[in-house]
Write a structure and sequence with these properties.
This protein is of the alpha+beta class. It has 2 domains: 7-173, Sandwich (Jelly Rolls); 189-293, Orthogonal Bundle (Arc Repressor Mutant, subunit A). It has helices at residues 112-119, 125-129, 138-152, 159-173, 189-201, 209-216, 220-231, 235-253, 258-264, 270-281, 285-293; strands spanning 7-16, 21-25, 28-47, 51-59, 63-67, 75-76, 84-87, 93-98, 102-110, 132-135. Strands 1, 2, 3, 4, 5, 6, 7, 8, 9 and 10 form a 10-stranded antiparallel sheet that branches. Strand 5 and strand 6 (75-76) form a beta hairpin. The longest helix has 19 residues, at 235-253. It is rod-shaped and about 105 Å long.
């Protein structure tokens, strides 16, 4: 998906060397800036989308002070321990550089909605809206260096390379853990009773999943998972059990031959009936009947 970062700034004292090196991936834009700085440089930045600022190199013995508003107390940026900042969308950031000669940094802008779609879950707004300023993690710096090299690569590798690196970086910074498997909810008591009664009444014919789902007002997929959550068996196995219970009743209460019992309980033929009965009961129909009547 195409994504264009929206950013405003008012800065002075900076001179970009060699232009901006930009790469775009699915919902992500990465920029590398190599900047010479005047003795006094700075300004403010505000982006409509969240972004990462990662300081890759800095030369000069001066200081960088960062504020969240023009009148806020300045916070010095420690080059050794505060190279990374996560800035939520819409948050202003003011910076004043004194005695800094050169700065090289990576900016990563991203569309939270697109990233959420790619991860197949909405990102917690609390993570998106919570700034993290001036921290350092060697693993993240290593990823940032690889992303920077790819942005400046005159012959870029496959898009999946840079895309995977930047997505990994965002997942780590935002601490996006693997989603917990969703527990399927069971059927309501009335839904289960209606489905079970219907299966037992119609077990001798093939019951379509669509029929059972319609009875309970659910989609076929939802019904199938909810039925198993309620009974421990998928609907078709429950129907097989219902047929076997009916077959047991006929075997004990009548003298029907096995071929007739098979037909009366919905099996294709005697061989099919015997095979399914043995699998579920542990004995062939005739042997089971003898053991029950002994």
């Amino acid at each position: 998906m195409t994504f264009q970062p929206r950013m405003q700034n008012k800065i002075g004292g900076f001179s970009v060397i060699g232009g901006v090196h930009r790469r775009q991936w699915n919902g992500i834009v990465a920029d590398i800036w190599n900047v010479n700085c005047a003795a006094q440089a700075g300004g403010y930045y505000v982006a409509q989308d969240p972004r990462l600022f990662i300081l890759l190199d800095q030369r000069g013995s001066g200081a960088t002070n960062v504020r969240l508003s023009p009148r806020a107390q300045a916070r010095p940026q420690d080059y050794d321990h505060g190279k990374i900042s996560y800035i939520p969308g819409g948050m202003e950031l003011w910076a004043d550089l004194t005695g800094i000669e050169f700065v090289r940094h990576l900016d990563i802008h991203f569309d939270a909605a697109i990233i959420g779609q790619r991860l197949m879950e909405d990102i917690d707004p609390a993570r998106i809206d919570h700034p993290r300023l001036h921290f350092t993690d060697p693993r993240l710096i290593a990823l940032a260096e690889l992303i920077a090299a790819e942005c400046e690569n005159p012959e870029p590798l496959h898009d999946l390379y840079g895309d995977g690196l930047t997505l990994s970086l965002l997942i780590d910074v935002l601490q996006l853990h693997a989603p917990q498997p969703r527990r399927r909810s069971a059927l309501a008591a009335w839904q289960l009773r209606r489905a079970v009664d219907y299966i037992e009444e119609n077990c001798v014919r093939n019951i379509r999943l669509e029929e059972l789902a319609s009875l309970t007002g659910l989609s076929q997929s939802h019904f199938s998972h909810a039925f198993k959550a309620s009974t421990g068996l998928p609907p078709h196995q429950w129907q097989t059990q219902a047929r076997i219970e009916r077959a047991k009743h006929l075997l004990l209460k009548s003298e029907m031959p096995l071929t007739t019992v098979a037909v009366e309980t919905g099996f294709a033929d005697q061989a099919h009936f015997t095979r399914v009965f043995r699998k579920n009961v542990g004995a062939a129909p005739a042997n089971w009947k003898r053991s029950m009547l002994a």
